[in-house]
Amino acid sequence: xxxxxxxxxxxxxxxxxxxxxxxxxxxxxxxxxxxxxxxxxxxxxxxxxxxxxxxxxxxxxxxxxxxxxxxxxxxxxxxxxxxxxxxxxxxxxxxxxxxxxxxxxxxxxxxxxxxxxxxxxxxxxxxxxxxxxxxxxxxxxxx
Length: 143
Hints:
The chain is an alpha+beta fold. Helix content is about 40%, strand content about 25%. A five-stranded antiparallel sheet has the order 2-1-5-4-3. A hairpin with a 4-residue loop joins strand 1 and strand 2. It is globular.
């Protein structure tokens, strides 16, 4: 038996952030988890560019890669998780992991990119603490 699925309801309430942006990086869709992770309401995010969540030091590189992806219609992050820093509305750094999928029109031209994003800030901080403990332990063994 097929179960009718309301995909907009699904992506609106899924635990990962779903952000869809157009050819010019303008945000077209922003779900509840995107609001939870980044702090912006949909009204604040829609129509803005992805620079609202991209750290300033990475904006140029991000935009260059984004526009190259839109130009070619190909992404290397469709099957691979990309782990990068991002910015919350309040200015604090968050660690995210995401993959993307291209959205094409009827003529197979790229018109948007959808990103599925997970907040990995806690995991990243725990990993950093473990690495620091390991480095301290290695130093004490060498001494």
